[in-house]
Amino acid sequence: MSNTSFTGSPTRFRSATEESAAARLVMIVFAFVGLTILVFAPLVAVFVVALADGVVASLKSLATRDARDAIRLTLTIAAISVPLNAIFGVAAAWFITKFDFRGKAFLITLIDLPFSVSLVVAGLCIVLMFGTNSFVGGWLVANGYPIVFALPGIILATMFVTFPFVARELIPVMIEQGRAEEEAALTLGASGWRVFFTVTLPNIRWALLYGVLLCNARAMGEFGAVAVVSGKIRGQTATMPTTIEMLYQEYLSVAAFSLAAVLAMLALVTLLLKTALEIRHADQLATTRRA
Amino acid sequence: MHIEIGEISKQFGTTAALLPVSLAIPSGALVALLGPSGSGKTTLLRILGGLEFPTAGRVLFDGADATNLTVQERRAGFVFQSYALFRHMTVFDNIAYGLNARPRAQRPPRDEMARRVTKLLELIQLPDIGARYPSQLSGGQRQRVALARALAIEPRMLLLDEPFGALDAKVRKELRQGLRDIHDTTGLTTVFVTHDQDEAMELADLVVVMSMGKIEQVGKPADIRARPATPFVREFIGV
Fold it and tell me: How large is the ipTM?
């Protein structure tokens, strides 16, 4: 070891967790190719087919009564089910993370149920519960409040499917933040509601926003459960996804893909909104995440 | 404020965190609850603050039964182990939080509130940090802001859970003196929890040594050092 020199420059400049340039390049290319095949290409394809007969034909198909009804229905569903699920999700996450009680693990499993149950099964459950032949459903129909094949059933199905999104985003954040800040607010004399609005809600707002956006995207795109529950009556209970499917089955590909493009754009707008908010509030984001 | 703890016990499920314990804390005293982890000292502090409720027993504040008072009604200035500052608020807003939480009729006007916050920032010797966020403060600064926030509500007593636990040795020494000074200026009955016997002996007027949910000995630091009551106390304070 006598000829070892300590005056020369070190040969390794990178830290232990850093990969070599070649490895990095391979990973980047791999990710890029994967994203192109799985995400970008299909998205582009939707727009290409939608515009195959020109912009006018595409717009004309969107201006039909059925298309407009489907768009209106889908937006209505999202407008009703997303706020409700935001409230339920916050309540569930609050309950799970701020209190200790028996059966907590069971409740968490229950929240995850929509992720694991086939959505067609979920739709069938709602039909069985509220269909004309069921006790509850029969009574409701007799009194003029049909659930299945009507807006309430679609909203129930959508809420069932999208329920986990908000709660799942919030639970880890709220567990990590603990209860100390809430307790501090209580000792300073704040009431429960005041603690929620001045301490809990500001601390979870980004997770909540993210959960709501995911929930919204899913609510607008839901097909399985809604297809079973809605009965797909055109102009009444046909949502955008079910209408797209029906148009596609009838070989009206321009109409189907035009509507699909609108649905995709709604999702993209949601994502852009999230990114814009993140950029605008980057400094606040930093202060709430650290500390 | 004089605090009387009468036969307080606390059960968490099947484990007993506190066996029936009794203790009298004279008004204006600076008291240390000293013991290893799991001795029940934090549980006792949280019961005083109204964050936990005892399974049995009574708490009296100045002779009046306070056992069933809510956490808000107790008006205890509480400093948490990790300080629990509101991370999305400035230091100013953190300190003003308790004043803002008061019912409208008792809430001081805006300029009065600013004056009080400024005064508290001077008391903790950090007059210029009102506009900063907790994440921009050092550990010692955070602890002092937490203290100022607790003092802002004009508390009837001051309760501190391991107030120096997360600090390095040098800062800890400084802040010990800081707490002593604030206690002497305000005259508040102060109870703090610690597992550090040096800290308890140096700072407190009265030391309560706890182990396994029981009080082993209560006394002035010198008396405990001179006459440890049980083998546990002898071993724990290392005499």
Answer: 0.92
